[in-house]
Structures are given as C-alpha cells and as structure tokens.
Specification:
The structure is a single chain. It contains twelve helices and 16 strands. The protein is α/β, with parallel strands linked by helices. It folds into two domains: 127 residues, Enolase-like, N-terminal domain (Enolase-like, domain 1, 2-Layer Sandwich); 236 residues, TIM Barrel (Alpha-Beta Barrel), CATH 3.20.20. Strands 6, 7, 8, 9, 10, 11, 12, 13, 14 and 15 form a ten-stranded mixed beta sheet that branches. A three-stranded antiparallel beta sheet has the order 1-4-5, sandwiched between helices. Strand 2 and strand 3 form a beta hairpin. The structure holds magnesium ion. Magnesium ion (MG) binds next to loops.
Length: 391
Amino acid sequence: MKIERIETILMSYRYSQSEAWKWSGGATLQRNCVLVRITTDTGLTGLGEVGESAYLPRSIEKIVQERFEPMLVGEDPMDIEKIWQKLYIQSCHYARKGVVSTIMSGVDIALYDIVGKYLKVPVSTLLGGQYRKKIRAYASGGMYKDEEDLFSEAASYVDSGYFGFKMRIGAQDPMPEVEMIRRLHARIGNRIQLLVDAGQCYTNFPWSYTTALKVCKALEDCNLFWMEEPLHPDDVEGFVRLSRATTVPIVAGENEFTRYGFAPLISRRGVSMVQPDVTRSGGISECKKIASYASVHHMDCAPHIFGSGVGFMANLHFIVSTPNAIVVEHDQTLNPLRESPLLCSIEYKDGYIHMPEGLVGLGVELSEDVIRAYPYIDEDAVRKPDFIPLW
Ligand SMILES: [Mg+2]
C-alpha cells in the first residue's frame, strides 16, 4: 500500500452574537476544524485532526501542501514509526514544536485510521487493546459569564453526574477570581470537584511565579482536582518550584510538544499529571510514548481535548488503551463539528464516556454533505484584546 495524496479539509461554524463566548484568551467567535485526509493507492483513506484550528488554518493548508505531501507520497502508511521519524527529522530545522507538531499529529492519526481500516480493527486494538470500556469524564466549560450563570452551569453538571467541572480564569487581577472560586466551592464543592484552568499561554496578563503561588495557596482548602497551566510552558523551573510549594495538583501539557518537551516536566515532577493531546503533542504514537514515560514516574495523564469529533475519537482510542490515562475532557461549548463527523455520537452516561463497540479505524467518516454544511470561513476565530503591558 502506498500513500498517493494528502489533503487538508477546513471547516467552520460561525457563532451568532449570543453564541460567542469570552475567556482569558479573548473572544471566541468561530469554531474551526483542520483535518487531513490521506488517500492510498488501494482507495483506503484515513482522517486525522490538526490541533491548531483557531489561528493558522490557511497556513497549515500551505505547509501540508508544500512540505508534508512530498514527504508522504510513496510511503507505506503501515510504517507509522518510520514516517514519524522522517517527518520529525526532515522538518527539524523549522519545527520540533508548535504548529508543525500539530500537523505531524494529524498525519499520525490518519495513518492509524488507515491501518485500523486495513486490518478491520479499532485503533485502540493497534495500541494494545482496550484497558477499559469507559472513562470518567469532567465537564469542560466555565467560560467568562456572570457569577450566577457560572453557578447554574456548575449545578447542571452535578445533575448530569460529572465528577468535575473545569472553569477558566486569567483576568488581569486574579484575586477576585480566586474569591469567586471560593464561593463556588462553598456552594457546590461537596458535590463536584473544581478544575481551574489559568491558561497562561492565552492570557494577556501572564502570572509571575509569585502570583501563581499566591493563587494556589489561596485555593488550597478548595479541594481542586487541579490547577491547569498556572505558568508559561517555558518556565519548567517554576512548575517544579510551584508543585513543591502547594498542595494543589498542578497540571500542564496542552502547549507542550513531543516526548522531548514533556520529559523535563515529568522527570522533574513539575506537574502532578500531564495533558498530552493526540492532535497536538505529536500524534497517537507520540502520546503513547509520553504516557509510557509518565508511567515510569508513576504519573497519570489527563489528555487535553478541545477539537472536532475526529480529534475526540483519536484521543478516546488513546485513553481507553492507556492504563495511566485516567480522565477524559468533555468540551461543553457549542461546536457542531464535535458530533458531525462521527459514525456514532459520543456516548456520555452517568459520569462516563463510553467507548462505542464495533469500530473500525477511528470510527469516523466525513461525508461530503458535512464538508459542504460547514464551509471554512476566512475570519478570525478568536479576537484577541489589545495588549497592554502590566509594567
Ligand atoms: Mg487548558
């Protein structure tokens, strides 16, 4: 079997004014997804998701066409490790992290989809089989809104059985947000665990180590499941110091890439859990290596998931086959692209996402109707606020 071509498929869903939401990174006005479809000379195709859809879809399309298609055409899609090494080595001078890692991720996922379809098995079987059939889910929402609306949102997840509720913070002054979390915990904390995402890669007001420590200390009695990205990903030393200085579990990883990027965070215990994402960190094969390295340190993974149904399913195959991947992120924001490419809808019940049975490959099938229904819109998906230096 030989790879004949690779296409990039872009899709969008533009929010109405009332559907758009705000968070520390700006205003999200549109959801995109960036998919790659690899076609082989047998007619078999594979789909993968590139986990950078907010800012660079057109650039990714160009990079895939100019650099990735020539590296892939003629390769046997069964040779996943060889292809990963080829892409990594031949792009090293201009890549290693960031957007090229997200493209490599999409390619790697699409290759697993092809191999699964060829062998007529689910991707999870290729990864060692299903360690579990269902996985505990937390509700990922909590964008900026009135406090009462946020409290009602949290209460709705209690009613539907989620063990945790993730909310976003990252304002210029974090202390009012800390007080709000304390009030939320007092109101509902005995019925659901709070996960707080400080998103320091996105906010205009990145925390210093001192701020991160102050925030964590003020939340130590709130039984947080975790504090996510309280520092910039380059501040590994800060993560190490912070993890030692607070009882709040610190996590990060959605803005880290490949096993080489994750290694110091894990081995130096900068975090309590790592958050690789098969659409960003280097693909399914790379996430298995990251999880394996974490397991050497008796550390769990809590994969980051915030894309379309293709990325969701790819992450789910990774999670169900990986003993130390212990929770699944269930994005609650409006995104029709999360369900539309799926053969069967995401099954959430009583606190768990269930792995569908009888899948072949990833278990996704993108019809031309769906592509036509969500044409790509060349507009900013996220509007960034003005940058105002703090000092
Ligand atoms: Mg996050």
